[in-house]
């Protein structure tokens, strides 16, 4: 089953109010409203995309080690997934799919990192629960996400909903900005050029990790 098929199945159960979430439809309507408004904002259209030069970054992994995009690119192509956090089931399903494809990424000589605003403690939890062999880097205040054009401020009505659902982002992220990154995937060539990008304001829509492989193969062919 493809990643999107899994996401669609989860979404159908979630929006039907099935256990364990048992959410009323008013919650679903609020989430739909927020997604529609984010789409209409045009933010995705102005984010970094294929052909652009990727911003450089240095971020810490959950163990406090500094990870530099420059150092990773010195070894080979770099794959980045911007990850909202451990509280997001759609995001976790994507991480699991990326993990399944990790051997193919490694075979192509690529490094894979996820970037999230959550605290290192929560990133360790994400790594453990999703059984990941790649790091989740801490992007405090979504500064790197902002450099990629992905950071957005949650509207007041959505903040209120999250509070009512006990989804305490200030606790998850260690700051009270109530900002998130739009989910996005990038493949970056060693010269810093973005050769694959996928940005979607709808967090329930994700590309299958296999879709990143042609970009990696093209890099390999160009370097042959």
TrEMBL record:
> TM segments?
none
User: Top-level EC class, please?
Assistant: oxidoreductase
Name the domain of life this protein comes from: Bacteria
Its annotated function is as follows:
Thiol-specific peroxidase that catalyzes the reduction of hydrogen peroxide and organic hydroperoxides to water and alcohols, respectively. Plays a role in cell protection against oxidative stress by detoxifying peroxides and as sensor of hydrogen peroxide-mediated signaling events.
EC numbers for this chain: 1.11.1.24
The UniProt entry's sequence similarity note says: Belongs to the peroxiredoxin family. BCP/PrxQ subfamily.
The record lists the organism as Thalassospira marina
Keyword Oxidoreductase attached: yes
Q: Give the Thioredoxin domain ranges.
A: 48-221
Name-wise, this protein is: thioredoxin-dependent peroxiredoxin
Q: Which GO terms describe its cellular component?
A: cytoplasm
Per its record, what are the GO molecular function terms?
thioredoxin peroxidase activity
- Reactions listed under catalytic activity: a hydroperoxide + [thioredoxin]-dithiol = an alcohol + [thioredoxin]-disulfide + H2O
Q: What keywords appear on the UniProt entry?
A: Antioxidant, Disulfide bond, Oxidoreductase, Peroxidase, Redox-active center
Biological process terms in GO annotation: cell redox homeostasis; cellular response to oxidative stress
């Amino acid at each position: 089953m493809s990643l999107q098929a899994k996401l669609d199945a989860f979404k159908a159960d979630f929006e039907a109010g099935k256990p364990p979430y048992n959410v009323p439809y008013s919650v679903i309507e609020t989430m739909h409203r927020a997604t529609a408004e984010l789409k209409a904002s045009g933010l995705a259209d102005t984010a970094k995309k294929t052909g652009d030069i990727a911003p450089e970054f240095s971020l810490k992994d959950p163990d406090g080690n500094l990870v530099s995009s420059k150092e990773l690119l010195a070894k080979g192509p770099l794959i980045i997934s911007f990850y909202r956090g451990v509280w997001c089931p759609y995001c976790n399903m994507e991480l699991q799919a990326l993990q399944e494809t990790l051997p193919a990424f490694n075979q192509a000589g690529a490094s894979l990192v996820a970037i999230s605003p959550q605290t290192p403690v929560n990133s360790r939890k994400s790594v453990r629960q999703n059984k990941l062999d790649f790091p989740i880097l801490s992007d405090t205040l979504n500064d790197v996400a902002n450099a990629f054009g992905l950071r957005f401020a949650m509207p007041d009505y959505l903040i209120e909903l999250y509070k009512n659902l006990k989804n305490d982002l200030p606790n998850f992220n260690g700051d009270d900005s109530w900002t998130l990154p739009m989910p996005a995937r990038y493949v970056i060539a060693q010269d810093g050029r973005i050769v694959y990008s996928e940005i979607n304001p709808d967090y329930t829509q994700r590309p299958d990790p296999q879709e990143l492989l042609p970009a990696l193969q093209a890099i390999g062919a160009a370097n042959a």
